[in-house]
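Subject: sequence -> structure tokens, single chain

Hey, anyone have a minute? Need the predicted structure for the following. Not urgent.
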Amino acid sequence: MAAWQPQQGSTLLMPSGPDGDHLFIVLNDPKVFAGYGPNPHVLLVNLSTVPQDGVHYDSTCVLEPGCHPFVKAKSYIVYRSARIDPEAHLLARVAQGLFKPQQPMPAGIVANIKAGLTTSPFTKREFKGLLI
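Reply:
Had a minute. Here:
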């Protein structure tokens, strides 16, 4: 099996918050971003389960169960938690076993997630104009 590489559509289970691991989706092939130094970086977003108790959530991009093997319940993209990570950081954490590679996200879903990045009211301003 080939070693995991961060590229558009790659996914990782990463420790996040009090509920344990969350699935993160890589939205671009590694590239140098202005203001982030000379090394290649990727933009990641994560999923969370749609609350069942009427709690408000970002409905910009909702994923249905079964769209990816990890998605077992109706889920949404948490644009407010989008983050930029250096490619080297992700590769090191995968090598350590801290981040766990999962199957890639289908290209059509990745395209919808990327479109939502610019329309979600929760996306940080610095990410809305980022050319990924």
